[in-house]
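Lab notebook, bench 4. The sequencing result for the construct came back, and we need a structural model before the next group meeting so we can plan mutations. Quick request posted to the team channel:

Model the 3D structure of this chain.
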Amino acid sequence: MAPQYAPSLRSRLAPLLIILQAAFIIIYVFFDKVIIDKQKDKDTFSNFYAEFQDVNVIVIVGFGFLSTFLVRYGFSGSGFNLLVAVVATQWAVILKGFKSWYDGGEFTLSLRSLVDAEMCAASALISIGGVLGKTNAVQLVVISLLEVSGFVLNTWILETLVKVHSLTAIMMLHVFGAFFGLMLTWVLFRKGSEQQFEKETYDRKTGLFSMLGAVFLWMFWPSFNSVLVDSPKRKLEVVCGTYLALAASVVTAAAVSVLSSPKGKLNLIHIQSCILAGGVAVGVASSAVHQPWEAMTIGFTAAVVSTIGVQYIKNHMLLAFQCHDTSGVLSAHGFPGLLGWLAHLLLQIKDCEDHTIAIRFAVFHICTLLITITMSLSMGIITGVLSKWSFWRMPQDNKCFDDQAYWEVNTIIIIGTINK
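Done. Here's the predicted structure in token form:
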């Protein structure tokens, strides 16, 4: 029997994507001062292009495969991830261009602006992890547009009003994306979600594919944290610190997973969700981390907090606050992001000899977090309310976590059978 909402992709998604892409093209044509930022020399271009590709792998392959853990939602997990990523990146380039033009510059396009835009898109990918399987492609596109808009606005406020360094502002993407996604899950909560959905399951094959995505993220995360760092010395420090934090996360997540298991066994969900916790935390604190032991301590603590969050807090958030966080983005990105913010604060105060400057930094640093959380929560609520509009035709409960509502699954199975 044909899925009830299959025609909605034709009547909603196709016009939305065509109009959206046409609007993107028109905007790029209208701004005739678009400049391709030429690199100073070929070596610089080659080095930055490699880092750009690393970030590309993280956004497309890493997050894409990480979203395939559900048994009957692999096509949607990876396919919708690609769709959201490219739409969000194009939109972020435009918003960053407007910001540059408003500040008296020009609407520029370069590898650096593309990387900046992809990191904004990563924030959107974090957010949609919280509603994975419970929304259709039309809703995800709308969510990504609004989330990127809110995140770019948040970075502009931090850089303009609080005078935060641009790198520090953009690395708050983990905190912004996690709390934005948490508000989405709260607003879009479905009655009966306290009991697991029938199709909200995973098996050996989907777990392996999802673990592959986590491994890709783990491998390329040092580039993600260091790509926008200008100083070669600082870039090396960030790369080394990120790797050590990630290594500490793997060891610690494995240990905590075994300790928290009634049977004393490793849990794949713990491993794939928490091995990045150290990289997330040290990325937020990258401006203040200079010593290897600092990075490793942050990675160790982040893995403990993240693993405990996945094991216990995720279910508590569902039962107590009606937040059905599918991918556990709060534990995977939110808590490590907050830990990285706290580590940044403590390390900066420790290295500051002037108490007046230390107090001033603490005040501005606290304002950075409060503004980010306030913006993410408010934008998440607004986006969630708009996403509940019946025009988007939210999938029914029996269509959640199921590719058949959006993909021609049966055709692929038949072709595969014939080839055999």
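The beta strands are 35-36, 108-109.
Will bring this to the meeting.
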